[in-house]
Fold this protein.
Amino acid sequence: MKKYSAIGIDVSDKDMKVVGLNAEGETVWKHVVACRKSAVITVFGKIEPCVVALETGGHTGWLARALMEAGHEVVIANARKVRAISANERKSDWIDAEILARLVRTDRKLLHPVMLRSAQTQADMTMIKARDVAVRTRATMVNAVRSLVKVAGERVNKCSTESFAKRCRQDASSETLLVLEPLLAGIEAQTEVIRSYDKKIHSLAGSERYEKIVEQISQVTGVGELTALAFVLAMEDPKRFPDPRQAGAFLGMTPRRDQSGEVDKQLGITHCGNTLMRRLLVGSAHYIMGAFGPDCNLRRFGERLVGRGGKSAKKRAVVAVARKLAVLLMKLWQSGETYEPLRARKIPARKEAA
């Protein structure tokens, strides 16, 4: 069997470039492998187990599992943080693969490794992502119909998205409907798709695997079944976060920083991590800060930030509440405590002077 000290893989849509290094760090193997599980197992099954590095991407999940089936140790690099690759002036697939191999051979911490989700968690998360695609597709179609109706000098009155097609048929003229009817039928079809996904997600959230955790997290008003289940799937293992405050950073809701000398710029959030989960938390924060939001510590925290004023104060407050909500959900998950909306801070008593 072939033997290498480290292997780097640069993955594209159809194939992947593979570079192997020997014990002295010299490039001794270059190979192109098709992006198929059978091809990966065939090629890497002929190599002695070693450490293999690849970046995060669409193929990461199945590829990492296939490599582990072949007996290799897999290190998944955070593509956003490997500047040696993204900032390379002579960037190419072969060079990227070689850099990955050299970095994992030298110090794998330089790759900012990420944890691989289990196959079950990945499959369950796919269902939520598929529903999100259906929701965004329907929203695009609804917005397009509203715009096209306005062009004709008409208007669709305000209504729920589920009843939009019916309302449009009532408000628009027959001439306009003659053109837009296929789009309205598509909106209704997407609504049925979303309802189908909602039933499956409800069933999944009530399964033995997730029911207890989802109920624990859903104690917070504004956090529904979908958001709670998505949070559990996105974070997967609460033991990964010794400090619950790490949940906010993991989901990309902590401010970026660019400090040098006396200059310390105020920047926006990092936007790293799970985009869908971040969007769901922001939606929950909007509800908490909205007209129907309950009186709770989260709402009061957001109102204090809004009260400071400044540019985009409400928007910044909502994001801050969403970050605090992520920390709260992680804390509830880890501790199993009952949620107290207006929990008072425990201030230690002062020692009396002797």
Observations:
- The chain has a mean pLDDT of 91.
- The longest helix spans residues 119-151.
